[in-house]
Amino acid sequence: MSATDGVVRIALLGCGTVGSQVVRLLQEHGEDWAARSGARLELVGIAVRDVSAPRAPWVPRDLLTDDAEGLVDRADVIIELVGGIEPARSLVLRALRSGRSVVTGNKALLARHGPELHAAVEQGDADLYYEAAVAGAIPVVYGLRESLAGDNVLAVVGIVNGTTNYILDEMSTRGLDFADALAQAQELGYAEADPSADVDGHDAAAKAAILASLAFHTRVGIGDVPVTGIRHITAEDIAAAQAGGHVMKLLAVARRTDAGVAVRVHPALVPETHPLAAVRGAFNGVVVEAEAAGRLMFYGQGAGGTPTASAVLSDVVAAAGHAMRGGHAPRESAYAQLPLLGPDATPARTQVQLRLADRPGSLAAVAGIYGEEGVSIESVHQQRSDDGQARVTITSHAATEASLTRTVERLVAESRVQEIISVTQVEGSE
Ligand SMILES: NC(=O)C1=CN([C@@H]2O[C@H](COP(=O)(O)OP(=O)(O)OC[C@H]3O[C@@H](n4cnc5c(N)ncnc54)[C@H](O)[C@@H]3O)[C@@H](O)[C@H]2O)C=CC1
Ligand SMILES: N[C@@H](CC=O)C(=O)O
Ligand code: NA
Question: What range(s) does the ACT domain occupy (predicted)?
Answer without folding.
Answer: 351-430
